[in-house]
Amino acid sequence: xxxxxxxxxxxEYLTTYGWxxxxxxxxxxxxxxxxxxxxxxxxxxxxGYSCTSPSLNASGYLEVTFSESLDLGNITVTGLxxxxxxxxxxxxxAADYVLAPNTYSRLIMHCxxxxxxxxxxxxxxxxxxxxxxxxxxxxxxxxxxxxxVLPVTTNSGFTNFTSVITTSTATSSTTxxxxxxxxTTTTIGACSPVSxxxxxxxxxxxxxxxxxxxxxxxxxxNLGGWSSxxxxxxxxxxxxxxxxxxxxxxxxxxxxxxxxxxISGGSILNGWTAGANYPFNDHGLSCAALNxxxxxxAGxxxxxxxxxxxxxxxxxxxNSIGAWTxxxxxxxxxxxxxxxxxxxxxxxxxxxxxxxVNNEYSAPVSGGTLxxxxxxxxxxxxxxxxxxxxxNxxxxxxxxxxxxxTYSATIASGGTVGTWAAQTPYPLINIAPGxxxxxxxHxxxxxxIANGLTxxxxxxxxxxxxxxxxxxxxxxxxxxxxYFSCVVD
Length: 489
Hints:
Elements: H1 2-35, E1 42-45, E2 49-56, E3 61-68, E4 75-83, E5 93-99, E6 103-110, E7 121-132, E8 141-151, E9 164-174, E10 179-186, E11 193-204, E12 207-218, E13 227-228, E14 239-244, E15 247-252, E16 258-264, E17 267-274, E18 282-283, E19 286-290, E20 293-301, E21 306-317, E22 320-321, E23 325-326, E24 338-341, E25 345-349, E26 360-366, E27 369-370, E28 374-375, E29 387-391, E30 394-398, E31 406-410, E32 421-423, E33 435-439, E34 442-450, E35 453-464, E36 467-468, E37 472-474, E38 485-488
Antiparallel strand pairs: 1-8, 2-3, 3-6, 4-5, 4-7, 6-9, 7-8, 9-10, 11-12, 11-38, 12-13, 14-15, 15-16, 16-17, 18-20, 19-20, 20-21, 21-22, 21-23, 24-25, 25-26, 26-27, 26-28, 29-30, 30-31, 31-32, 33-34, 34-35, 35-36, 35-37
């Protein structure tokens, strides 16, 4: 009798608690199904960030839509990284662009996957390195903004891992019954080339480089993307390049080298041809070409480390640079100035002598002979390595080692410059010594140094007479580069 009583008690115990155990098992299973990452594309953001539409290809390039709401105002992104673990990385893939809160951007970075990873799933951590523009003296921060679970595909529609390739701003409208969100997206779009930008050499990873890249200038005002071209004859930086009649001419760069090359359709044709060496090792000079001659102004003698005022000219025929002839000296010894040409004269702006100056001098030229220099109008602030370029009767000078100010003025046929006017500031601060060019009613500035960092950011702005409009980000330059030189055909 006692046995049956105990058995009944056991049955009652199992009946009472068995259902409880079963319910717990079901809840655990449901939670597992809900939280278990699927085999599709997942980007799980951390607090303060948004991360959607991730994609990863077999080369390890990851593309994702990103936004932030950190209550820090605009932030400047200085690096991106993708890792397989939660430990803050010690190095970052270089980047440099400004992001506004709640603005959606497509970021691309490189992740560590093997070449045989197609068809597998990648689990990783996405990192952003940044500082707040509102608190420039605060240290650079590094955040894990998301982790990802992604299938590795053969998609190869993107290759530059420090790009912001699209930007959109979210706007919300609320009614009594629903809330909707819409966005307007700006993209580079299809390109109908009207001209091409060519950039030569520079200081890449603290070494003189011979890289050459070109990008089409599209009819819609955007740059179409960069492609590698025939390298220069040697690694050079702090040199100066100029264009005339479908040819590029480059001079100096811590050496006396000079060379020319024919350009067409974004390509270097038939390689580079060495010309007559410059009279001495010069760097920080600036050159302008017009009417069959190239004129190179001032700089610093690499042999003596002394800033100089010498000016030389040489005839240019095809890709050939002839013998150099001494001309009227520049009024001051000047290192890091920027010269542009008009139809029959040149104008030179800024530089250091030995500290940054705002001087601007012009001189008419004819048949390889440069007449006396004239002081026109001083730039509104001192600036070494300003990015100056001329377009349609105006000169535009952007940035320099002393800020992000943008100025414009008229430039007469003989090079005389009118009164300077302040324009829309450049998005990055101290953007020097990058290079700026103008074409098709737009100005474009490439790379350089911003806030002490070498960057590959590129921005463009529309031009209307002396007015410089709003700057917009363009396809990033393939290398973080400084002390290089760009031209446009």
